[in-house]
TrEMBL record:
Keywords: Membrane, Transmembrane, Transmembrane helix. Residues 176-197 are annotated as: Disordered. Residues 1-165 form the FeoB-type G domain. The keyword Membrane applies. InterPro entries: FeoB_GTPase, G_FEOB_dom, Gate_dom, P-loop_NTPase. The lineage of its organism: Bacteria, Bacillati, Bacillota, Clostridia, Candidatus Scatosoma. GO terms for molecular function: ferrous iron transmembrane transporter activity; GTP binding. It comes from Candidatus Scatosoma pullistercoris. The chain crosses the membrane at residues 211-234, 275-296, 327-346, 358-377, 383-404, 437-455, 522-542, 554-576, 582-600. This is Ferrous iron transporter B. SUPFAM superfamilies: P-loop containing nucleoside triphosphate hydrolases.
Amino acid sequence: MKLLLIGNPNVGKTTLFNALTGGHGRTGNYCGVTVGVSERPSRFSGLGTVCDLPGLYSLDGMSMEETLAGDYIARQKREGTEFLAVQIADASTLVRALRLTRALLALGIPLVLGVTMCRRFRRRGGRIDCAKIGRSLGLRCFEVDALRKKSVAAFAGELARLTSGAGYRAECEAARSRKNGGGNDGKNDRGTELPEGYLPARATGGKEDRLFLNAGFALPAFFAAAGLVFFLTFGKGMPGDLLKSLAETLFSRLAEKAGEIIDSPTVRSLVCDGLILGAGGVVSFLPQIALMYLFLDLLEESGFMSALAVMTDGLFSGIGLSGRAAFSVLLGYGCTAAAITSTRALENRNVQRRAVAALYFVPCSAKLPVYLTLLSSVFENTFLGAVLLYVLGTGMGLCVSALFRKDDGGFVMELTEICPPDFLSVLKKLIFQIRQFIIKVSTVVLVFTVIVWFLSSFSFSGRVAAEESFLAQLCGVFRYAFYPMGITDWRAAFAAVSGLIAKENIAGMLAVLFPGGVAFDFPAACAYLTFVALLPPCVSAITACSRELGRGRAWGYAGLQIAFAFVCAYFVHFLLTGGARIALGILLAAGACAALGKAWRGVGRKPAEKNYRKGKT
């Protein structure tokens, strides 16, 4: 038995899905958060599998995620799967949701209506009686609050009775009778009638909504808030920097204590250099990553994301995207794989391809440890450098999208209400994201770090220095590609290449292979940072792109971006080592040659010929 959670976007389907299953589906106070079908066994007995579908307004929707949801419902019906459709509707927008309700009733499928956010609706003066609404529509209607355990348990109990043998047969019979009774297809005006037991609340959208929809206020406020977050995260002496220093001190002292206890030099090196200072060094960036995630979570839960999308639509439409791309770009600062998956909410495939190509450049949170590791070796205060690197990655991605610009239609999106974020929701999301980061470090990064420690510490003759190890013999060829950017050490070259698996690996490799710290000169450090900033995302993100656009396009994007990263890094090193004057001279010479060539083409031309070319004769 399956429960299909169906409904308009941003009505609380995924929040209820998480409450029914114990899952961690991504939620947010804006439309288009869920872009794929999630299936998970219920944690309540008798409910079977719960399926969370993307939001849709009609069964023949225009966007890609609406089409996906409609096709999934049709496939379940066509294959004869036993399922109960549970339409979730926001009490404030119930009348609009009834158009979809009538379309589902016309299919003759067993349907239950669950109404969410009733407490907020009543506080605004609205009245709702689910029993009367259900009688007027000819189906069962229940009130549910996904944030309250008692309400979810009561709702799950009602659903369990309806999915039992006798209950489900009765619902199927009722669905057939509704269909034979002449249900409409949801396209006429009956879907806008007020059902019995429902009185609308007063109109929403107060001063806060008007203020945050004013581009003159909202955009400067957003950039000011983003600048403040960057300053608190990267600024010297700020909370992010202090917590990172504290974590580094703790791991350093832990390594010293472990070194005093362990007698074997080999085991001591493995534990201290490989495990504690390698993987632990990446964990020390957790406070700063958590601050970045907190900022993004507050944007998502407040509803400001939809307002930001509307206000930036002019910018994004100028580069061949739409305002919806703002969601994906902001998500890209957290995780590129999740951001690429979110592009399914865009208007069509062409827009999605351009958005994914841009997201390959947007710096994710995994690049943050690498940025700070390298910036701290060159600059005393890493704030400005980190901001410039984020601007470089984002700007380059937008330029790539503009390069393939094409007009693919208009932009339509439902605005959500601006409201204070729910503290518990933000806290749960933040804890889950921190846990995922720790799991990644303790699995992928830790295993990779241990393997690299072994390969960099041994050869066929036993324990040796890193320059004579297996790793030096295997990876020495990498350094030749990095010579033009001033990097002559094979260890730095290998660290950069390891970032193709996971960007955290770069910071871990630099900690393992450079126990005394990284020491690049200024031009080499800038070139290396440019290369890392423009590297394609990790394997997980490329896999997500493969699912959306195909394997060939995903790896083709990655290959072209690697070549582009090398060229840009070479150019940066060239400019910073005296090449700026040469480049300026070349540009001036090229401009002079172009001017002379244009003047030369006009010399000796007859007036009649010139007038003819201008179209005057």
